[in-house]
Amino acid sequence: MKAAVYGGEREVQVTDVPKPSISGSSEALVKVTLGAICGSDLHIYHGNIPISPGKVLGHEFVGVVEDVGAEVKRFKPGDRVVSSFFTSCGHCAYCRKGWFNQCVDKATFGFGEYYGDLGGGQSEYVVVPLADHSMEPIPSGMSDEQAIFVGDILATGYFGAERAEITPGDSVAVIGAGPVGLMATMCAQLFGPARTFVVDMVESRLEIAQELGGIPINAKDVHPVSAIQEQTGGLGADSSIECVGAATAVDTAIRSVRGGGTISMVGVPSVVTGEFPYLDIWLKSLTFRAGWCNVQAYMRPLLDLIAAGRLKPDLIISHRMKLDDAAEAYRMFDAREATKIVLTP
């Protein structure tokens, strides 16, 4: 089958690899109908995540079930499905508490040996382990483009907004208007904020954020913390959602909120360790939350919200390309020439 594979730092190759098949009773073989490039894929692209050359990339995908193992009860061949970007069993101690991102059997698609050695979704076929708890059926009439982001960035955006403790009338600051930040901007509106400030330096992304209900702040033109304070009577936002992971973005998220406020960090950290303003956090009585999304908890509700017209995640897609063009798609996405790219096998 055809697949996009890691070829080395800043190198993606499209090549033929063996078609996978199910080997476990909880697995499903999915024929991919649409994949996407995610911001966290760039961590691999930049050589910051240990992964062997030749490993298939991609963790955002939808498709049609082709085969299932004997223990799979929720799905059958022919079903259209969207997968979480990581697997979870649904019955370990962590899963029973709703912390699917801590599942003892968790593995991430397209991230190589260090993260479970699963195949990736930027391919023609992918095997989904623990299928009954890692996938959701796509509602009839919903397009692939509407459904695909439920398995990662839309769920992450909602998770970030939920953990920001937004209440009606609040002011919220979204730091970063990449795909996750745009989803956070969209999802934040569900909680009733009066104002949602969105900070970035890419004008095209800020324009989309404004369409989604955000108030754009271009960090190239103004100091974002000062701009937010000026529009909140000098206090700062009630909460912030950090969607980049860079140290400077985390610092902006912390300094943008008022005393007693909440910071919700969902951006993948760009460094392993770094300085942290412990005293400022203490003096301002801030709540700081961080982590990756418990995707499985949100997939069904988000699909229902999309079906009802309350969320329109496909609005952020800027480029539709073929899997054959994955190398160029990665270059464009890395250069911020695209907001979100989807790939058709």
Q: Whole-number radius of gyration?
A: 20 Å
Kindly estimate the percentage of residues that lie in beta strands according to DSSP. Answer: 15-25%
Compute the number of helices: 12
Order of helices and strands: EEEHEEHEHEHHEHEHEHEHEHEHEHE
Q: Helicity range of the residues?
A: 25-40%
Q: Please tell me the CATH architecture of the largest domain by its name.
A: Alpha-Beta Complex
The CATH class of the largest domain is Alpha Beta
CATH topology of the largest domain: Quinone Oxidoreductase, Chain A, domain 1
Mean pLDDT: 96
- Total strand count, please? 15
Structural class label: alpha/beta
Polypeptide structure, described:
The protein has two domains: about 1-150 and about 295-345, Medium-chain alcohol dehydrogenases, catalytic domain (Quinone Oxidoreductase, Chain A, domain 1, Alpha-Beta Complex), CATH 3.90.180; about 155-290, NAD(P)-binding Rossmann-like Domain (Rossmann fold, 3-Layer(aba) Sandwich), CATH 3.40.50. Helix content is about 25%, strand content about 25%. The protein has helices spanning about 40-45, 95, 130-135, 145, 155-165, 180-190, 205-210, 225-230, 245-255, 280-285, 300-305, 325-335; strands at about 1-10, 10-15, 30-35, 60-70, 80-85, 125-130, 135, 170-175, 195-200, 215-220, 235-240, 255-265, 285-290, 320, 340-345. The mean pLDDT is about 95. α5 packs across α6. With about 350 residues, the chain is α/β, with parallel strands linked by helices.
